[in-house]
């Protein structure tokens, strides 16, 4: 799992698509020098999550203010448990 975690500092444009719309934009403004706290995306994703006809943004779990390795594991478990239900 460690190679899947990329901070805003190092996420390349090619990988930004995996960060989602919000995460990708945070990366762009962070790397552009705007005052955004460093971070990384823990997210659920469905291939047809959003389309021109419908948006399902916010349908799945969001976990904020995750600071430790233990909290990251809990956040991942929380997101996964929402997707499985």
Protein described:
One of its GO terms (molecular function) is kinase activity. This is Phosphoenolpyruvate synthase. InterPro entries: ATP_grasp_subdomain_1 (IPR013815), PPDK_AMP/ATP-bd (IPR002192). Residues 40-82 form the Pyruvate phosphate dikinase AMP/ATP-binding domain. With 85 residues, this protein is mostly helical. The protein has one domain (2-84). 33% of the residues lie in helices and 0% in strands. It is globular. The model has no long low-confidence stretch (mean pLDDT 77).
Give a short summary of the structure.
The protein has 85 residues and is mainly α. It contains two helices and no strands.
Morphology call: globular
Radius of gyration in whole Å, from Cα?
Answer: 13 Å
Oligomer: single chain
Order of helices and strands: HH
GO molecular function, one term: ATP binding
Protein name: Phosphoenolpyruvate synthase
Pfam family, one: PPDK_N
């Amino acid at each position: 799992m460690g190679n899947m975690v990329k901070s805003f500092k190092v996420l390349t444009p090619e990988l930004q698509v995996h960060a989602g719309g919000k995460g990708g934009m945070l990366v762009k403004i962070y790397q552009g020098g705007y005052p955004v706290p460093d971070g990384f995306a823990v997210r659920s994703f469905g291939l047809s999550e959003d389309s021109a006809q419908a948006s399902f943004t916010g349908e799945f779990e969001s976990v904020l203010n995750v600071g430790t390795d233990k909290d990251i594991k809990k956040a991942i478990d929380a997101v996964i448990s929402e997707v499985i239900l």
